Model the fold of this input.
Amino acid sequence: MSSIETMIPKNKSEHVAQLLLERIITANLEPGSSFGTEADLLQQFSVSRPTLRESLRILEAQGVLELRPGPKGGIIVTKPGMDVLAHALSVYLRLHGVPFITVLKAREVIEPALAAEAASARTEEDLVRLQDSVDRLKEATTEAEFLKENRRFHSLVAEASQNKVLMIFWSTISILASGEQHGITYTSTHQHHVAEAHQAIVDAIRAGDESLASERMGSHVQELQHLVRKRYQHLLSRATDVIPRQGRRVD
Done:
């Protein structure tokens, strides 16, 4: 019996949702696969239509299924995106009154660990992508270009770590801790400083120095908190924003 099946559901709809999820997992269904029709599932699980539909809505909210209307629609298997986790976590943090500054501090713990792992696990291809990112950041002429490449760099460091769990944690936290989402802007001087910090991090990762990579990333991400404390003090105690769900994706 799987761990999913041994969980005690609150009601019949949640129980059926667990069974449906177990079927998706054990059948190794790929995103985009059809999960059958409502009529088929009603017959297989011997439940009422309202119960089944509620079960499907539970899985849809979790990003596991998509219910497509129309003659070419149906029940389609999907893969949860980071927006699902970010939304759920942001709701939890907001309702528990966790301020934005605490999210920043969590990022300061996760990113140095990712940089350290990247220093030991990175490939030559990772190094090329990281250096290309730094070069593009130096050449950015608009704040939009800078912000896009800044996000990309941190994503590349996470990918180079090869640590799937930390990558998920970082991807979720990075959405919540996004400075521009809270109205934070960066001067040209600060942008230049960020590019230099990124180069220093890449150099440490290239050298395979885990301690140095962690130290440099730690100093770098702490700069955002320093910026908030200096220019955006109103954010220190501000509750974490609720992150909206994005459109559902099949890929």
Notes: Residues 1-5, 247-251 have pLDDT under 50 and may be disordered. The CA atoms of residues 4 and 18 lie 6 Å apart. The two ends are 30 Å apart (CA to CA).
